[in-house]
Amino acid sequence: MGTPVRAKKNLGQHFLRSSATAKDIADTLPSVCENCLEIGPGMGILTNHLLDKNINLKVIEIDGESIDYLLINQVISSTQCIKGDFLKLPMKEFFGGKPFMVMGNFPYNISSQIMFKVIENREYVPALAGMFQREVARRICSPAGSKEYGILSVLVQAFYDTTYHFTVDENEFNPPPKVKSGVISMVRKEDFTLPCDEKLFFEIVKTSFNQRRKTLNNSLKKLLKEKKLEEKVGLLRPEQLTVHDFIELTNYIGTTVEGG
Questions:
Q1: Fold designation for 9-188
Q2: What values do phi and psi take at 157, rounded to 5?
Q3: Where are the domains of the chain?
C-alpha cells in the first residue's frame, strides 16, 4: 500500500472516509452512455465503486501525489489516468470527441467553474453526478421563487433535469470541511438547445442575478429602453422567473432591440 495522500488546502481536498457513502454517491450516476470521467479521484474511494459498474472509466487528477497513489495501489491503470486540470483541457480530448458522463466529489473551490464548463460543453456531457458543497448543490436544483435560486440554477436547468439525492455530514471527511455536502445528479434534456439567442440568454440571466435586489426593469435597463421593459416585467425580480420566463424575456428583448 502506498502512503496515504496528504490533503492539500490549495486544491480544496477533503477525502471521504466512508466506503458505504462513496457507494451511495456512485449509485446516483445515471446510466446514459458508456464513458465516464471522474474529476479529482484523490485516493480512489469513489473510483473503486465506479469500477464495479459497466462503464469505460477515466479519471483526471491535478495532484501528482494522488496519481502516484492510485497507480502504486493499482486502483487504475496508467491508460485510465489523465494528469491535468479539467478546467483547462478541451472536452473533446477526454474520449476522442465521444460523449461522457462526469462524476466526482468535486473540490468546493472550483465546483461552480466545473458546472459552467459542463454547460458550455453540454454536447459532450449527457449526465453528471457527484458531491458539492451543500449550498451549491441546493442552488443547482432549486426552483424559481426559492432563496437559493440563482444564475447556476437557471443555466443548469435550461439544459439538464436535476435531482438532489442526499446530504453528507462534515465528519465523513478527512479533514472535515466547515460545511455540509450535497449529492446531486443531472440528466441532459432531449432537446438541449434554446428557442432563443443563447448568448443573450446567458447575458440576461447573469445581469439579472448580479443585481438580484433590483427589479428586472432596473437591472436590465442597459439592454433595452426602460419603458418597453417595464411593460413586460413590471416590478418582478429575477428569482421569480422560471427558465421558460427567461427564454421568453430573451426573445422579447432580442426582438425589441432588433426592431428598435
A1: Rossmann fold (3.40.50)
A2: -70, -15
A3: 9-188, 198-259
Total-model pTM: 0.91
Phi, psi of 36 (to 5 degrees): -145, 135
Grid cell digits, residue 123: 454536447
How is 60-114 classified by DSSP, letter by letter? EES-HHHHHHHHHTTSS-GGGEEES-TTTS-GGGTTTT---EEEEE--GGGHHHH
* Region 198-259: CATH code: 1.10.8.100
> How far is 197 from 234, CA to CA, in rounded Å?
22
Helix, strand, or coil here: 174?
A: strand
Name the grid cell of 204. Answer: 440576461
> Tell me, what's the pLDDT at 252?
86
Q: How confident is the model at residue 236 (pLDDT cuts 50, 70, 90)?
A: confident
Judged by DSSP in three states, 184 sits in strand
Residue 46 is classified by DSSP as H
SS3 190: coil
Which residue(s) pair with 127 in the sheet? 187
Residues 6+ apart with CB under 8 A from 131: 16, 25, 104, 105, 106, 137, 168, 181, 182, 183
What is the tens place of the pLDDT at every residue in 64-101?
Answer: 888 988 999 998 999 999 999 999 999 999 999 999 99
Rg of the chain over all Cα atoms, to the nearest angstrom: 20
